[in-house]
Amino acid sequence: MRPVALSSLLILCVGASRLAGQVRDTTARIVGTARSSTNGLPIAGVMVAVRGARAFGVSDSAGVFALAGLPPGRQTVRVLYGDSLSYDSEVTLKRGKTLALSVLLDVDAVELSPIVVEARSWRADRSLAGFYDRKKWRFGRFYTLADLERRSGLSLRSLLSETGVQVRCGIGPCLPIGGELWRRCVLTLFLDGMQLPADFLETIRLDELAGVEVYKRGFDVPIEFQHTFGDGCGAVLLWSRY
Question: HSE on the CB side for 185, CA within 13 Å?
Fold first, then answer.
């Protein structure tokens, strides 16, 4: 088997919740998954350790890892994978709570320096980890990092045109138009889970994105991104690369 190397690593702090059945426990816990950022598949054998706590976990065949009995406070998490990657990242652990991490690895045959991003808000649970979960349902059009890199040099407007979304540019800004044939409307634009004005379309570059989701009809938009279930226009979900 040819050895693989990692071209990038993305660590996403998804959130914290109280440990079930351990309300009085003063220690913290880390759980999470390791996946490929290229195809969303789980990766086994990724070691996640907390330096100074002598605790570590290794992802199983489902990409899942867990560490318990950790000291609260600011801690350094080390991620190791084969001989290709060793990376340290600081996280904050809270007493009696669980920190969820999503570790996304870009596996490549050529060894490159890792690129690391730690999400710093609750919106991280709507990140690339959720991107690949939603991709399985195929209600929208999805572009992975590899897809976007193959379209290097194109504009976001050109990418949307591939999906059948009309981008209308009049006297004012360019706007993405979707909806049903009998009801055309402006698609809602999201960047890393945060809604943006639709006229920001021209300010976003494809080489700054790691994933794009396009939902032309309001009914297909994931419920967490809908204002009213089954009603309204479609949406464009953009996920930052850095």
Answer: 17
